[in-house]
């Protein structure tokens, strides 16, 4: 089950505000999905997540199928019950992780043979298995398995991967058995605009509930990422949600929303939090810097999150330097809140027909201040 | 400022229920203080702590004076504001930590010279400095600096340390300048009941707001610990709170409450949580055990904490095995709740004149099941 309604389309920009209806609830788009790779956004309870403004989270079928196992989660009532999150969940199929994390990955037409990065055990994953696993997990949105060639791969490698991904996508569609679970196709094609267009055609022909841009932010220059998205997104059906996988900084998100993207996930806010780097309305606060040692101000004076309304930069720095576990929680609450509020602000700007100026502001600030 | 009122004294046992009034609020006794060594109970927000039932926490002046510095915390408005905890805080002076953690500790009559365990820098701490630091932190209860001889030390070593601790206690009293901060004396004397009695006499003569038993649970047999507490506690003024430092298991607490102890602190619930061991009404749940891999039950079916009402043992095991930061939070929420409810149950049993049977039950269960 999936529905997508566009509530406002910007003029002079691809940006749009929509409402995505999934089995476990509605998601205002453009939306950011915090990353819960192993079924937990690192350091956050489901209550924390909700308070940060998150409406949907991303989990990873590759990781969860290796540990604790999709069958285990299914017997326990599915991923929502397992992780105590009642809202929508999108699961990535794990294609990207097989090619980046697993060892000895070998692609054949049936699927991928690989060894677990945890214990070296042998596994096979094909497009049918990827759907079966995600149906067992019971996520709201399943992603098809795709082949992800490395950034900078030769054109014939990218071409072969793109064509195989399309054949796998067709097999995934044939395998679907749960109408309540949306399935998104993934457009490949690397940085080649012609291959991207061909991948769009082949993928859209299969009639998915939504479409992702995959194989980007994998090492190519950021200008190329933005250009590919800007050219490719408009080729996708306007009435289906568009998901850009695995990106990015606030400025990236602003640019990609302008290209017509509706959904995002990225480890930046959560990973930076663990490293003591906070996104703020006045630029990055890197907690290890001595200047914060007796700074009584909140991380971000414009932020109303649990962390910013109760704790000083000095305390956050102290927790980070002392490697206190609470540092992870408090920093992540703030960074995820920052990202979720950024999306809210973008939605507001789009509806007010002021997205261009808003996005330019985000991009301009970032040039000086944010880590990536 | 400190007041202590006994609301119910058990018959046939030293156990009593009381109410301790401190600058930042009231504490129902017997009470357990979760340990916030560096100004944070590891993995818990102040909100989590409150929901676990904690009314008072313990922080450590030794650690906080080395990092971030008592003067820094004072400039930021004191320890309560620094750590976002509005309830009572007891600070340990750090005597025990100097002797157990710092290197090259040398005791002279003025105080202790030592090197920081963090960076090897040289420091001096005397009884006056210990009070000054804790006044700067602004804790509700300050502990005097004492000399802590190792467990099993020769009698003349213990005697000398006990006598010096008494002289230091007198200097601490002379140094007090903040009437709103309670100061507790510490009874030393190792396992020697004669030295303990002499230390009680010397310490009580100085007129503290409360009295602690120190230098126990430092390696001596547990039967000795209990015996020393059972003999020494009744020698202390009945109308002052009694604090047993650094212990223990639920069974230890039940025995010590029976000896007339009112306050406890211990790292067991928080440390065990980080190691994946959960205290439950059916014995210890050690999460790494494979039998919990698909166990749908909560950690403790009789527990109403955030963790037990939302998550299965299978999920907690998964988080622990995957080293997810949320494991620390969820396990600690449960274990601290378990300890706080144990204290609540003891208070209820005392008021109902049923403490003997209750304590015997706790001690009996523990013989088979709890880690220590």
Work out the strand percent of chain A: 15-25%
Pick out the low-confidence regions of chain A.
Answer: none
Largest interface: A-B, 40 and 40 residues
Radius of gyration of chain A: 20 Å
Strand order of the largest sheet of chain A: 4-14-13-12-11-10-6-5
User: And the CATH topology of the largest domain in chain A?
Assistant: TIM Barrel
CATH classification class of the largest domain in chain A: Alpha Beta
Helix content of chain A: 40-55%
CATH architecture of the largest domain in chain A: Alpha-Beta Barrel
Q: Enumerate how many helices of chain A there are, as a single number.
A: 15
Assembly of the depicted chains: homodimer
CATH superfamily placement of the largest domain in chain A: Queuine tRNA-ribosyltransferase-like
Describe the structure in your own words:
- 2 copies of one chain form a homodimer.
- Chain A is an alpha/beta fold.
- Chain A has 2 domains: 3-266, Queuine tRNA-ribosyltransferase-like (TIM Barrel), CATH 3.20.20; 267-360, no CATH class.
- The first copy, chain A, has helices at 46-51, 61-66, 70-75, 79-83, 95-100, 127-137, 155-175, 193-204, 222-232, 250-258, 268-274, 306-310, 313-321, 325-351, 355-369, and strands spanning 3-9, 16-22, 25-29, 31-33, 57-60, 89-92, 103-108, 111-115, 122-125, 141-143, 182-187, 210-213, 242-244, 263-265, 277-278, 285-286.
- An 8-stranded parallel beta sheet of chain A has the order 4-14-13-12-11-10-6-5. The first copy, chain A, has a 3-stranded antiparallel beta sheet with strand order 1-2-3.
- In chain A, helix 7 (155-175) packs parallel to helix 8 (193-204) and helix 13 packs across helix 14.
- Chain A is globular and about 60 Å long.
- The two termini of chain A are 36 Å apart.
- Chain A binds chain B through residues 38-47, 67-68, 72, 75-77, 82-84, 274, 293-294, 296, 306, 310-312, 314-315, 317-319, 321-322, 324-326, 328-330, and chain B through 38-47, 67-68, 72, 75-77, 82-84, 274, 293-294, 296, 306, 310-312, 314-315, 317-319, 321-322, 324-326, 328-330.
């Amino acid at each position: 089950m999936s529905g997508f309604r566009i509530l406002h389309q910007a003029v002079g920009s691809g940006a749009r505000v929509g409402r995505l209806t999934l089995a476990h609830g509605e998601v205002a788009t453009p939306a950011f999905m915090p990353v819960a790779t192993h079924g937990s956004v690192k350091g956050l309870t489901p209550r924390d997540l909700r308070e940060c403004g998150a409406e949907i989270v991303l989990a990873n079928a590759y990781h969860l199928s290796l540990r604790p196992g999709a069958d285990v989660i299914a017997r326990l009532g599915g991923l929502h019950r397992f992780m105590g999150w009642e809202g929508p969940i999108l699961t990535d199929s794990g294609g990207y992780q097989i090619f980046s994390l697993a060892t000895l990955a070998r692609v054949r037409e049936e699927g991928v043979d690989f060894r677990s990065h945890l214990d070296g055990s042998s596994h096979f994953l094909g497009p049918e298995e990827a759907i079966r696993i995600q149906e067992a997990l019971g996520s709201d949105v399943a992603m098809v398995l795709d082949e992800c060639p490395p950034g900078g791969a030769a054109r014939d490698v990218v071409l072969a991967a793109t064509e195989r991904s399309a054949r796998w996508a067709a097999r995934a569609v044939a395998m679907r058995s749960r109408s309540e679970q949306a399935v998104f196709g993934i457009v490949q094609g690397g940085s080649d605009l012609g291959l991207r267009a061909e991948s769009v055609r082949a993928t859209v022909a299969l009639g998915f509930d939504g479409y992702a841009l995959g194989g980007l932010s994998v090492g190519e220059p950021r200008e190329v990422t933005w250009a590919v998205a800007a050219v490719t997104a408009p080729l996708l059906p306007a009435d289906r949600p568009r998901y850009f996988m695995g990106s990015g900084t606030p400025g990236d998100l602003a640019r990609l929303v302008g290209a017509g993207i509706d959904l995002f996930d990225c480890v930046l806010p959560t990973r930076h939090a663990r490293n003591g780097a906070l996104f703020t309305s006045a630029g990055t606060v890197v907690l290890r810097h001595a200047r914060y040692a007796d700074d009584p101000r909140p991380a971000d004076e414009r932020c109303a999150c649990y962390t910013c309304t109760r704790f000083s930069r000095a305390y956050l720095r102290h927790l980070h330097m002392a490697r206190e576990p609470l540092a992870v929680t408090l920093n992540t609450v703030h960074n995820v809140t920052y990202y979720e509020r950024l999306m809210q602000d973008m939605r507001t700007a789009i509806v007010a027909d002021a997205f261009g100026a808003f996005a330019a502001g985000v991009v301009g600030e970032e040039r000086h201040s944010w880590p990536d």
